[in-house]
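Sequence dictates fold. Below is an illustrative record:

_____
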Amino acid sequence: MKLLITGASGLLGLNLSLQMNSTHEVTGVDRNKLSGVPFQLIKADLLQPSVVDRLINDVRPEAMIHCAANANLDSCESDPEGARRLNAELPGELAEICAKRDIRIVHFSTDAVFNGTTEGFYTEEGEPNPLGVYSQTKLDSERTVLSANPKAIVARVNFFGWSLSGMRSLAEFFFNNLSAGKQCSGFTDVWFCPMFVGDLAETLVRMLENDLSGLFHVVGSEALTKYNFGVRIARQFGFDERLIIPKSVEESGLRARRSHNLRLSVHKLSTALGREIPSVSTGIPKFYTQFQQGYPQKIRSYQQ
């Protein structure tokens, strides 16, 4: 499959590009952060006029996987207009172009479209109620993408893995602090369903191969608190879990509000694919294996 992957220097985009490049023809799009990657790379700013048309004419992809976004919650709060342009408007424009050219498109949303006040697991039919600018722009993007292109896949995700900067995922946050013997906080009142980014890549390929469309929760099949996630990272790597200080998210001092319950049901996805969805219990060992194999250093070597 010929894939065009935007945001190729981000945690998601880079990991997807590297993993999918072994079995698919990948072209990544990056503004100016990458060099020496083993897949075709085009440097471009998607917000510039006519850039997307030129990219599609040059690459002629069978599918576009749109990873480019501003995922920094506090940054979105500081620049809501910029967040709206990148996170909400651009995806709709891409979806419309792909619809006209009969190109499959995968767009990513977030588990944070829910306010987290409901008990249990949210389904795709649950009523979203975003708490901040980032989550609102992501909810808006779901609607613009599916309105412009009903054949699109919109995936609500929460993932972890190694990144270009080494500081983009919660797993890296715990690794960086614990490996240095530093104390760090773990929220005991925020539940989520993280998925290892490698498992996410494999799941997305299956979704494309099965010709799925519409809104799906593409997260891990197991829920846990962010504190417990940190404890599992500590135990996997042999770090001192006592360095993780249990804390309420309400005491964090973070600018953007966070949802307490981000448990998402994956029943719809599991049924559509006819298989179980990977869990954090199998994802963390894979994250650790990559560390043993020098994968974090390999990724950072691509930083321009």
About this structure: Residues 80-100 form the longest helix (21 residues). Residues 235 and 267 are 29 Å apart (CA to CA). The chain has eleven helices and 13 strands.
